[in-house]
Amino acid sequence: MTESAGTPPEPEKKFTDSTDSTTPEDPEETEAGTALRTGSTDHSANDGATNAADDSSAGGAQDHDAGGAEDNVAEPAAAVPPRRKHRWLRWVAVGTSVVVLGAAGAGWWAYRKLDRNITTDTSAAAELRTYEKDRPTPVAMDAQNILLIGSDSRAGKGNSKYGRDDGGSQRSDTAILLHLAADRESATAMSIPRDLMVDIPGCRASDGSRTEAQFAQFNWAFQFGGAACTIRTVEKLTGIRVDHHIVIDFSGFEDTVDAVDGVEVCLKEPVDDQQAHLKLPEGRQNLTGEQALGYVRARHGIGDGSDTQRMDRQQRFLGALFKKVQSNGVLLNPTRLYPVLDAVTKSITTDAGLNSLSDLYDLAGSMRGVPTEKVQFLTVPRQPYTLDPNRDELVESSARKLFERLRDDEPVAIATTASPPETGSPSADPSGSPSPSTSPEPTFTGSNAEAGMCG
Asked: What is the value of pTM for the model shown?
């Protein structure tokens, strides 16, 4: 039976059923429907574009009828061929993988480079194990006591310009016992004068020989037996267990200052110290690494030339350096942080507990949240040595109180004073003795990192 006889083919019935289930009874509607299916609808001159659109719809419907139900949804004319689309997605995936792997590879290379920069002091650990029974017992287990030693050896690269090398001998130019509170809410850095007269135990020298126990100035301990001898001397002096040690040379300090683009200082008078290779005008200025090294080491042509004022300058400068490194401009900027880490790791020697980048990162991370006003600096209470005014000795009562507070991880109260190093006048309470206070806690004279060098 043909379509003109009134019986539509199956696809036509499906189309009709899906669009209108009611059979039209009006003959005009039947004719319109037939015309729509055959594409024979009349167009008048007034219909224009509207009828043209109707024709298009009619033609589309006719095509669907002829093609079957599977052609009901028309494919967009501008569709991307599946093969080209999949190829494009593959290239995006490959490109992304290359970028990620490249970044990971660069990060791993940088990590390994910094990690290999660090030198490990294995001999100190062996020596300390020998005398373990003589060492103090830790009291506050979560607190950390780290001995920072500034070596005056000229053996390192670039260090010879700071003086002659006496046969490779070295002494500790600076020694600071850094106490990190167990709650990491404060940090106290206690300087130990290099000329302080102390009991130095018998130590093993680098050539295998052993020195005799003797009463001598503190910085000889490093010359006698390196870090291990210095640690044992500090522990004997203070009764505080040293958990870790870090030895840093001249060039390392210089490079670290340069890596943070210098540190600002304020000088009340010009400085001219030929031995420290330092010549500076008065006023506010930003010191480069080499200038900073001369500034913290100078004893001639600045202030009264005393070691007391030199240590005060060192403490305030380290506080300003800590404040700048802790700032977001350094810690949160990889392009600025990497040079700092590179400078530090290339110039330090540590014990096995701090000899990896992850160990140092954890240490730095634990100090990141310490408020700068709670990063405190002071010098062990001392006075001129009775038998030689060019040497120092402990103020026993005050020193013991300070050592006890650090050993027991108790707060140390610091009374900050204006810094007078460049004026030639002595520091307030140069002996480091506790200042009068209404508080039952002893108060010591010092400074904090918040003050900086111009505070």
From this structure: 0.71
